[in-house]
Amino acid sequence: MTATSATGRGGGPLRWVRRLLLGALLMGLVVVGGTALHVWQVARIDDYSRADAIVVLGAAQYDGTPSSVFEARLDQAYKLYRKQVAPMIVTVGGKRVGDNYTEAASGKTYLENQGVPDDRILAVETGSDTLQSVEAVSKALLARGKSSVVLVSDPWHSLRTRTMTRDAGLAAWTAPTRTGPAVYTRESQAHGIFRETFALLWYQLTHFSADFKYTADQ
């Protein structure tokens, strides 16, 4: 009986460590799962409420020609503009080393070719990731007395973009593109939700961006 009690006492702390580790693991799974669900829920939202501006998040461009990902976003922004959701469109994004054009400039040219007047497009040629882009847009719009935006990106990018934009001082909601490589297959959708779940958790934890070169088109 004494030996059994000693063994029990010896195993007690180890059992508590195991329980704590298991509890931490389960809590982590709940947080990750809940965030993934929220990413999915916001991805399904199409809010066409009136705003001061439509903001198109940049993506890759090739010598002034938008990639398929970027083109899908620009087409959605043009659709919103035609529906009079906002009187102006903001394109945003800088350029990589060796590029002749910024993402913002190539997006502006694309929209002008669709018939959007030059004075209805603001090109914010700054930003190499989502956080830099939304902060640059917020600064530019607030300086012009604009305070509300509808954000256009890929569906899975919506929640993180909206979170960052609101943190930057703008009222923001989302109307993402429903076309393009980001939504073609279930695999691309699952990849987008997975990536954005951890990118959002990282941002909420550190307030730094977690954008990496995960596809050539992005």
Automatic annotation (TrEMBL):
Signal peptide: none
Residue ranges of domain DUF218 in the record: 52-197
Alphabetized InterPro entries for the sequence: Cell_Envelope_Assoc (IPR051599), DUF218 (IPR003848), Rossmann-like_a/b/a_fold (IPR014729)
Transmembrane segments: 20-40
Keywords assigned: Membrane, Transmembrane, Transmembrane helix
Protein known as: YdcF family protein
Organism: Nocardia tengchongensis
